């Protein structure tokens, strides 16, 4: 079990450990027991540029959270680190925990940045 602050510190350390390793698509923070594939996030959830969840507990007024990340009146939310990897073979390079914070691994495949392309005209528009 880790607080958001503990998870942030562990995330920084894990990024250092994994720096330069091939096949790592992203390192982030996620609420424990909630998988990114479970569905959409609420307004206010933040994501790292690599697509991993990095919620700091801040939400809009409709989904207000306490400073520790828990919904008002609910118990504290615990956090894990999430490492997105390109292939199953990369998972052996990822430690099971960092500074006492559990590490969850997701195989997401290779992620490429795509250049924006101009929309193509249909043949009808071209006439």
Q: Could you characterize what this model shows?
A:
The protein is of the alpha+beta class and about 130 residues long. It has one domain (about 5-110). Helix content is about 15%, strand content about 20%. It has helices at about 5-20, 125, and strands spanning about 25-30, 80-85, 95-100, 100-105. The protein has a four-stranded mixed β-sheet, covered by helices on one side. A hairpin with a 2-residue loop joins strand 3 (about 95-100) and strand 4 (about 100-105). The longest helix has 15 residues, at about 5-20. The radius of gyration is 18 Å and the shape is elongated. The N and C termini lie far apart (about 65 Å).
Give a quick set of tags describing it.
single chain; about 130 residues; alpha+beta; 4-stranded mixed sheet; 2 helices; 4 strands
Chain oligomer state: single chain
Strand order in the largest sheet: 1-2-4-3
First CA to last CA: what distance?
63 Å
Shape: elongated
Query: Structural class, from helix and strand content?
Result: alpha+beta
β-strand percent reads 15-25%
* Helicity, as a percent range: 10-25%
Number of structural units classed as domains: 1
| Major sheet | 4 strands, mixed
**Uncertain spans:** 38-68
What order do the SSEs take from the amino end to the carboxyl end, as H and E? HEEEEH
Q: Would you count the extended β strands for me?
A: 4
Q: What Rg is obtained from the alpha carbons, in whole angstroms?
A: 18 Å
Number of helices: 2
* Overall residue-averaged pLDDT value: 74
